[in-house]
Amino acid sequence: MKIVDITVQTFRYTSNIVRDSEGHAHPGPEHEATQSLLTIHTDEGVQGYCFGNIPRSTLERLIKPMLVGEDPFYRERIWQALKERQRLNLATLHDKVLTVIDMALWDLAGRALGQPVHRLLGAMRDKVPAYASTMCGDDLEGGLATPEDYARFAEWCVKERGYPAFKLHTWQPPYPNAPSVKRDLEACAAVREAVGPDVPLMLDPFHYYSREEALQLAKGLEKLNYYWMEEPMDEHSMSSYVWLCENTSLPICGPETAEGKMFTRAEWIKYGACDLVRGGVGDVGGITPLIKIAHLAEAFGMRMEVHGGGPGNLHVLCAMGNPGEFYERGLLHPFIDYEQPKPWLNRLDDPMDDEGFVHVSQLPGLGQDINFDYIQDNLVE
Ligand SMILES: O=C([O-])C(=O)C[C@H](O)[C@@H](O)C(=O)[O-]
Questions:
Q1: Measured between alpha carbons, how far is 128 from 120 in angstroms, rounded to an integer?
Q2: What ipTM does the predicted assembly reach?
Q3: Best mutation site among 168, 204, 208, 313 for ligand 1, i.e. most ligand atoms within 8 A of its Cβ?
């Protein structure tokens, strides 16, 4: 089988999610937005799909010359070649681009063989417990504007919807009075009070606190019996994370957004900069590197907690021998109906049952049920 073409279709949809000036997502007025679908075409008529955009110039100048003519089953060879090309093309061939290509290749392999990706990887399980992961704090009345808002929402997520665990993303600039260690701890305490002593709770706060502020947070969370904290400081300072781990009994989960794929994760494990290693398909360049990190973590007897949702992360979670404990479901907000599939999908990628388990799709490839008619009807010229 040979790759003969790679195409990107961009289409319109109506969104009620907006981004603030720092890029964090919040509910907002309905507006037109776009999404893209990348398709890898083969000479045998099998195709692989992944949602995500690759600029046309990157596709034509870098990706197509490397991939057209290749056997799509040589995923490792393709991924290694793309990774090596990054050195002189960092601005255009970044890890998000590698992610889209790699996921489409896994989808293609699954579709060609009639198997879902977690079974190609070597399946371990078919469902994973989820945690409810909130959007960042805001100033919307009845939204996520106060510690009481977080408490009310956590109570609903755990007691009504059945989530076994809950993670707060607290306030970040440009919101007034953010960041604030004091207010973060008030929200964390209110959530603990609302859900009781036994529910695992996590915090993902402002990402640029100082060492002292991060330690203050960690000490507060120790008292509240929190399960882990993510990215409270700039992840480029690994030494700060080593220092934090040495000074708190609270489990520290990372690195999340730091560049460097499995290489960075290996260094963090070696130097004791994390207690739980972190990675997601979107952070590290796809399923191919994420499964390497899962195996790396397993070899060190450490859990890998997967960052973010979506089909790629869910398939990896279902194929890990030393399982990451939770699937991150979100980002959630009291004003957003997360149970509604995106208009370009016929069903949710991550349906959750009443016990809080997310079930992986058994359809071939990434297992997404794509509404191709919707995409065709809403194409952007
Ligand atoms: O762990 C997560 O879900 C995130 O990191 C989600 C977002 O990136 C959040 O941290 C943010 O908006 O800064």
A1: 18
A2: 0.93
A3: 204
